[in-house]
Amino acid sequence: MTHIAHDVPPVPVAAGGSQASVATGGSGGADTRGGHRAGLRGGLLLAVVSAMAFGMSGSLARGLLETGWSPGAIVIVRTGIGTLALAPFAVAALRGRWRQLRAQARTVLVYGLLGVAGAQFCYFSAVADMDVAPALLIEYTSPAAVVVWLWMRHGHRPRPLTLAGAGLAALGLVLALDLLSGADMAWSGVAWAFAAMIGATGYFLVAADTDTGLPPIALAGVGLGVGTLLLGVLAAVGLLPMHVSARSAEYAVGTVPWWLPVLVLGLVTAALAYAAGTAASRMLGSRVASFVGLLEVVASVVFAWLLIDQVPGAFQTVGGLLIIGGIVLAKLDER
User: Fold this and answer.
1) Would you say residue 273 lies in a domain?
2) What's the whole-number mean pLDDT along residues 156-174?
3) How many domains are contained in the chain?
4) Which DSSP symbol is given to 293?
5) What b-and-e string marks burial along 227-265, b requiring 16 or more CB atoms within 10 Å of the CB?
6) For residues 33 and 41, is the Cβ–Cβ distance under 8 A?
7) What is the span of the domain harbouring residue 79?
8) Does residue 27 fall inside a structural domain?
9) At what angle are helices 160-176 and 132-139 packed, to 10 degrees?
10) How far apart are CA 284 and CA 146, in angstroms?
11) 150 pLDDT exceeds 50?
12) With bands split at pLDDT 50, 70 and 90, how would you rate the model's confidence at 284?
């Protein structure tokens, strides 16, 4: 794993100020604190946008799956379109600093391997052997894994509010995913789901690393490209079955041509989701960003209701509220 910076969002320096004025409480201190709060608010907004965008993917993919698309084909087309969409922005953000990109090749490889290819491939492998709900629950233990990593690697002992937020969010996940009704648990699926959790944890940790010097959108764009290439290798050797269909997809809002959900999957649930999520992790730190990422579960339930007529029950509604409560506690602890 690449070096992970301490999980504390960087404090921006006010325009025209200096680090010294921040340290000594000079005249620029109030402006700097205001800028820091604004940065945290911006990071929180980006994290919510990322979670909502990721949460849309399952319902959109469901419509394509029912027409004959394979999960592997959906994920590789999704990441491929996302790569193409972010490519010009990544190039512009790098401003010709290709040497810096080569110097951070290990970071980009870990991002693409764990955060893109690993998380996607392992999750789809998990749901092939077990129910979707428990697979999601296992993958979304990643915030706890982030807390443990920061504790073991950097000595960031979790404080009471963080532990309370983790517990509240975990209970919310159990309710939101409707696990109380029972689910099929296969050990092979559980192993794949834990592997997906490791991929999601790596995504949050690497995305929050401020020591690389790579702009967030460049890391997201190049990382998506690396992940797409790795998924292509899995497809080439037969580990990722590839089946596509030109049939129209059926959703609650009506019938749409196959290319429309494909474009939304690539542009929104890949390009926008990864770019916004990486930028949010830089602003918030991996711990808070991973907690806010739990909103993807809530978003998944909402989009399932809107797009494929899966109406959330009372337990799922209460679970969503508990997840939000856990995020609030984790954010208060960050303060």
Assistant:
1) yes
2) 74
3) 1
4) T
5) bbbbbbebbeeeebebeeeeebbebeeeeeebeebbebb
6) no
7) 44-334
8) no
9) 170
10) 13
11) yes
12) confident
CA distance 287 to 208: 9
Q: 119-128, 168-177, 263-272, 280-289 — which is least confidently predicted?
A: 168-177
pLDDT of residue 316: 67
In a domain, 24, yes or no: no
Structure tokens at 243: 């089946």
SS (H, E, C) 310-328: CCCCHHHHHHHHHHHHHHH
Count of C-beta atoms within a 10 Å radius of residue 28: 20
Contacts of residue 156, defined as CB under 8 A and 6 or more positions apart, other chains included, come to: 6, 7, 147, 150, 287
- Whether the full predicted model's pTM is greater than 0.85, yes or no, is no
Nearest residue to 173 (alpha-carbon basis) of 329, 312, 51, 319: 319
Count other C-beta atoms under 10 Å from residue 318's C-beta: 15
